[in-house]
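Private note to self, pasted from the team thread so I don't lose it. Backbone tokens:
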């Protein structure tokens, strides 16, 4: 599984533009960290379906924020 995430990371970081990456609670935090962002607190799988990871790349710098959809 980690190899798939690394391949996605390489593809994303080699391109310019806006991308939507959709994942599950067991993949999205790790992917965010691999890309240089925050993983955040552990996701409560039974009740949490609204966490959005926003990562912005400018040159080699990555900025990251976690927001709750609808708030």
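Design output:
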């Amino acid at each position: 599984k980690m190899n798939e995430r690394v391949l996605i990371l390489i593809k994303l970081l080699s391109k310019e533009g806006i991308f939507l990456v959709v994942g599950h609670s067991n993949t999205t935090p790790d992917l965010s960290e691999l890309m240089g962002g925050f993983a955040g607190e552990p996701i409560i799988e039974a009740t949490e379906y609204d966490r959005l990871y926003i990562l912005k790349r400018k040159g080699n710098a990555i900025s990251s924020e976690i927001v709750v959809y609808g708030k």
